[in-house]
Amino acid sequence: MTGELTYRRVHRASPELLFDCMTDPEHLAHFWGPAGTSTPVDGIVVDLRPGGKFETTMVDADGGGYTMRAVYVEIDRPHRLVWIESDVEGGMRTTITFTDRGDGHTEVITHQTNVPEAYLSAEARAGFATSLDRFDAYLAGLAR
To answer: What confidence score (pLDDT) does residue 38 get?
Structure first.
């Protein structure tokens, strides 16, 4: 069984900066993955073009690694970013939209379809939310 998930956040940053944070390994290394993991920059591949690879290897506290492998489907800087994780049963699709609110804030909506049942659990959703919290903290540091 698969489902879908939607996460919404409003950030005090431009759509351009947010898009670049989501597509630059130097930025991604600071926040990618749930709390308790790290994603070293040398474990991130971004070939930012339709058909290009997007891979991240998260490392947990015990040193275990988890690699996410995806292929970019759509790139429309700074409005939209879409990738598909074909390794995930059914090919999980992630669509991120960046909407400028005109007040120095941008709404970011992450919509996922073909989400495996294991990713739909409250625990998995809470883990994803911690990665969004890490992104918020990283952005606050950039703003300083």
So the answer is: 95
